[in-house]
Amino acid sequence: MKRIGRLSGAARLAVGGAVAFTLSACGATIIPDGGRATAATVPTPSAPVPTPAPAATVPVPVPTVPTPTATGVPVGANAIATGIAAGSDLSTIGLTPEMASRALAAFRISCNSVTRRSDSSGLTLPGDWANACAAAPGWTDSDAIRFFATHFRTVQVGDGRGLATGYYEPEIVGCRTRTPQCQVPVYGVPSDLVEVDLGQFSAELAGKRLRGRIDGSRLIPYHDRTAIDGGALANRNLEIAWAADPVEFFFLQIQGSGRLRMADGSVMRIGYAGQNGREYVGIGRLLRDRGVLQPGEASMQGLMSYLRRQPDGGASVMRENGSWIFFRELTGAGPLGSLGVPVTGRASVAADPLFVPLGAPVFLMMDRPEASGLWIAQDTGGAIRGANRFDTFWGAGEEARTIAGGMSARGTALLLLPTASVERLLAPR
């Protein structure tokens, strides 16, 4: 969902974590490779925050002068440059059979990707996953704890202190054709949207992309939300469907994928196909900074209520987020994460691939019990940036909507890496 946005592989740059509202995503036209512009409300935790265990080994030294790494990532900008240390033994972190079984099922479907893709975090090589991926298909779910204990060891990136938000797959009322009930266009990718891989021009810009449109001989920013709402893409046969509620569709764009429930009871599933390159603006933070939100309105549900109370239905506020997500119809398994495999509710998590190898298990010890446990990193998000920043996926339905919409948890994160990776990384230097 590349969360916020790009549920599928590159999915979701503008979309984002379910609460996706107080943090800003990336710059206006330079956007990270992938996903959703997830952002989330960050209330002050009421429960004690778990303290990371002291590092068991000396972190990998970081040069003081930024120079490109072998992967083209500037030093200090990925996990290996930030520093890693051995984490707790798997037998002591509190894995339960249920969470391990769910994670093993999600891990299996990642193997075709992790054994082939390059890892920009610097932590793993494709061959490191071979033993675990060879064993996973025949391993029984009831013995999943032993699977992870056999093939993985934990490491801590930086100080291990983490933040977890949540996202989900929303379901809203929609129509395949325009009707009096459905007036909000769901656009596919316009043919004049141009995407430039900036990494081809500079190693320091590896993983960054710029999107815009050609005007004569110039590349200029693509239409923003205000222009698109005003009809900039109308009459071009770009509509793949129509939504009934502009507020619900706005938040579906933040998630990067969702379901359109038709009048006949059928469902059309849509997923991230592209983004206009405009900066994601978290309207929750915007409204909070203006002092207009009442207590309890910083959640997704509270923000929806605020928008509906405005004379224009919240249109002027929503237009302050210039980012717009383009969709495609999903007909197979899904929703798809940035790893290119379906994400699983209560098992998949979005992470920054510069700090977490996509496909890797992640153990979260948070001040919210719902977020604590073993997850598999299978997605990314435009606002999910930096070490130990995660966005937990909760599936579809009202319960998923409620949990994801109010999720903000702090605590400690451990990565589970293949044994071969850890032995290489922490070998005496």
TrEMBL record:
MF annotations from Gene Ontology: hydrolase activity, hydrolyzing O-glycosyl compounds; peptidoglycan lytic transglycosylase activity
Keyword field: Cell wall biogenesis/degradation, Lyase, Signal
Enzyme Commission number: 4.2.2.n1
CDD domains: mlta_B, mltA_like_LT_A
Matches recorded under Pfam families: 3D, MltA
Transmembrane residue ranges: none
Protein name listed in UniProt: peptidoglycan lytic exotransglycosylase
Organism of this sequence: Sphingomonas lacunae
Organism placement in taxonomy: Bacteria, Pseudomonadati, Pseudomonadota, Alphaproteobacteria, Sphingomonadales
